[in-house]
Amino acid sequence: MRYKSTGELHMDFHGATNTTIDYIANKYGKEALVDIFHKVGKDVYKSIHEGLKNDDPSELIEHLNYYLTREKADYTLTENEDGFVLDVRKCPAVAHIKSLGLEVSPYFSLQYVEISNALCESTPWQCSTEIFEDGRYRQTFSRRK
After folding, report:
1. Is this model's pTM higher than 0.70 or not?
2. Domains in the chain and their CATH numbers?
3. What is the DSSP secondary-structure string of 26-83?
């Protein structure tokens, strides 16, 4: 897996990300965030995007499992005949932001939606995201019909 951080885990990164998301949304608008998240999905995670273009979700699945396990998320990732479902019951990023006494940005969950949409863009895959509340969401990755 290309995208694999090791060593000490710095959870405060999530607080900085939350603050940055608010700053960009307030200064440049939601559309700027969408553009940034799309660039992350297609450029930063290029090999994951390329894998999906080749109908191979294995690196995405490994990436999600690695980081959610590393950060001690309460989640399940279940593969099925159509693809897989990621069910996050407690996002460690959101929990840490709250533990810092910060308000979670109303745009924070936009990254789940838009990065995943960008990863699936121009691929045989699609992603549907349901946001239930701060830190609780479900993503269904399936092959396009």
Report:
1. yes
2. 12-143 (3.30.1380)
3. HHH-HHHHHHHHHHIIIIITHHHHHHHHTT--HHHHHHHHHHHHHTT-EEEEEEETTE
